Automatic annotation (TrEMBL):
Pfam families: Thioredoxin_7 (PF13899). Keywords: Endoplasmic reticulum, Secreted, Signal. Residues 1-21 form the signal peptide. It is found in: Endoplasmic reticulum; Secreted. GO terms for cellular component: endoplasmic reticulum; extracellular region. This is AGR2 protein. GO terms for molecular function: dystroglycan binding. The gene is Agr2. Its main location: endoplasmic reticulum. It comes from Hypocryptadius cinnamomeus.
Length: 173
């Protein structure tokens, strides 16, 4: 009988520590909600201080009317590759700064727009759309089989692609 209570005691400890961790997480998000103009959940961790659009339609509208390029990140919460890219993206100070010049959208589901999956529906993938609402099929990562995929080690390429999306814009408008 002694052994059984020992085991249940141990399980109880695990449950308690998880609950505490959850509460600690909640507190942090409360403190930062004053900053962003939209609920922080829209960032899904890709940059909590950035302003993210809620839907693809809203993102297109805002890109067109603000004359800013749109950056769309397709990812999944339970995909380790998405998580790894998100971490380096969120921690990259230059990327976070440059991202302010974009209309931003991150999606955990596919849209019905086939232009957003030029070579398939894989995650993570990052596409740029200019204010004329054209997908920039010319701004790609370094994999020929998944053109819009980036790994954490490709973060500087993603950064220069963001610069390219902004530069191309200036010369064409």
């Amino acid at each position: 009988a002694m052994e059984k209570s020992y085991v249940s005691m141990f399980l109880l400890l695990i449950v308690v520590s998880c609950a505490l961790a959850k509460d600690a997480g909640k507190k942090d998000s409360k403190d930062t909600t004053a900053k962003p103009k939209l609920p922080q959940t829209l960032s899904r961790g890709w940059g909590d201080q950035l302003i993210w659009t809620q839907t693809y339609e809203e993102a297109l509208f805002r890109a067109k009317h603000s004359q800013k390029p749109l950056m769309i990140i397709h990812h999944l919460e339970d995909c380790p590759h998405s998580q790894a890219l998100k971490k380096v993206f969120a921690e990259h100070k230059d990327i976070q700064k440059l991202a302010e010049k974009f209309i931003l959208l991150n999606l955990v589901y596919e849209t019905t727009d086939k232009n957003l999956a030029p070579d398939g529906q894989y995650v993570p993938r990052v596409l740029f759309i200019d204010p004329s609402l054209t997908v920039r099929a010319d701004i790609t990562g370094r994999y020929s089989n998944r053109l819009y995929a980036y790994e954490p080690s490709d973060i500087s390429l993603l950064y220069s692609n963001m610069q390219k999306a902004l530069k191309l814009l200036k010369t064409e408008l």
